[in-house]
Amino acid sequence: MYKIEILEKKRLEKGLSYTEIADNLGIHKVTVARTLKGVSMKPRTVKRLADYLGVEMERILQLLLLSSLLGIAWSESFAIEFEKTMLI
């Protein structure tokens, strides 16, 4: 459904813990952890996390949709190559 790894990567880049995010958003840290690990992906929670981490929802969805439309299995190498072409 979502390319949730983008959010986890952004969390790590910012040096934020699950507890810090949870406290700032007013949600339980287990909810944050389960969402960012891809265990639970409720749209409202994903959106709140994306907004908080400064990631556009379109980015999470477009990468996944594009790979599906092209018939390409999602992989980290595909994501890297795709992002390289978007920078050109």
Structure description:
With 88 residues, this protein is mostly helical. The protein has one domain (5-87): lambda repressor-like DNA-binding domains (434 Repressor (Amino-terminal Domain)), CATH 1.10.260. The protein is built from 6 helices and no strands. The chain has helices at residues 5-14, 18-25, 29-36, 43-53, 57-69, 76-87. Helix 2 crosses helix 3 (29-36). It is globular, with a radius of gyration of 13 Å. The mean pLDDT is 79.
User: How far apart lie the N and C ends?
Assistant: 27 Å
CATH H-level homologous superfamily name: lambda repressor-like DNA-binding domains
Q: What class would the helix/strand composition place it in?
A: mainly alpha
Q: Any idea what the radius of gyration is?
A: 13 Å
> What is the H-and-E element order?
HHHHHH
**Mind telling me which CATH architecture this is?**
Orthogonal Bundle
Count of separate DSSP helical elements: 6
